[in-house]
Amino acid sequence: MSNVLVSARGLEVHFPIGGGGLRRTPAGLLRAVDGVDLDIHRGETLGLVGESGCGKSTLGNALLKLVPSTGGTVTFDGTDITSLDRRGLKEMRRRAGMVFQDPFASLDPRRTVAQTIAEPLEVHGLHGGRRERAARVGELLELVGLDRSVAGRYPHEFSGGQRQRVGIARALAGEPDFLVCDEAIASLDVSVQAQVLNLLRRLQRRLGLTLLFISHDLSAVRHLSDRIAVMYLGRVVEIGPAAAVGSDPQMPYTQALLSAVPLPHPAMERERKRIVLRGDVPSPAAVPSGCRFRTRCPYAFEPCPTVDPALQPAGAAGQLAACHLHGVVGRPVDEETPQGIAPAAE
Questions:
Q1: From CA 211, how far away is CA 60, in angstroms rounded?
Q2: Does 12 map to a domain?
Q3: Mind listing the pLDDT tens digit for each residue in 36-50?
Q4: What is the pLDDT of residues 189-242, one digit of tens each?
Q5: Which of 19, 65, 100, 184 is most open to solvent, judged by the fewest CB atoms within 10 Å of its CB?
Q6: Start-to-end Cα distance in the chain
Q7: Helix or strand (DSSP H, E) at 247
Q8: Per the database record, which ranges form the ABC transporter domain (predicted)?
């Protein structure tokens, strides 16, 4: 059995934009995910971070085929899910669940907690019989720290943290191997965020789950994750052990992200030097040629506009970084393809 549970190779998710007229011909493509190679190992928690709009959530959805991919492959436990039929997808999705960002919007306000959690049991034919399913709903509620007696309540009767626990219980109902947590703590109070993070860690260890934890909160990701992947403009630009990425980042973009995280010690916070990036994040509809971070990178040099960097070994702790500072490794830009905008003067 392979140690890799979920794998993506050359994964692309592009959306047509603009256009007009009777035929509605697209004026261009928004490259939300643009050539991602990623492996998620069994039993690990992989943190996925990056600025808003970098493609994190779209990548998480694509790994579950909740949005169609336009290129590349996604393999789940050795099976290419991009070519699965409806029946195959149903079985795959029993083994893969999702926890959404907004716990209120993701729950049906007209259904009780028991009905919401029992739905995956009914769809996948688990714990047959009304009594057995009711007992399983109670077990799942207790598993996420809620009392069985709340099963008959509706979502509006809970706090935000409690609703997110209900969402986690629903995601666990199908007895999955893999969970995608898409900004699962972003809409919660800080104290509740810590409780949900600790709950996810306990569940991961107790049930042997594999987690993809998507967040823009680097401190939360470092607390929960075994490895961290950093995204920028639809591409993974650094990946490695959480401790190494958090303490010795090898990609200038990761360094800038970490410098923006507040330190709990006031004296250290006053003395440290922040990395302030120049310019705005380019549009994913007009990705820069070569290195897509070069328009904001303080270290950009000659090969950056002309060679698209590949992930390569960087640092002493096993990180991979898509940066020419560690050696010019990558694909030369073909000006005849719609790779991106023409190289700009630095």
A1: 11
A2: yes
A3: 999 999 999 999 999
A4: 888 999 999 999 999 999 999 999 999 888 889 989 999 999 999 999 999 999
A5: 19
A6: 49
A7: helix 242-247
A8: 17-258
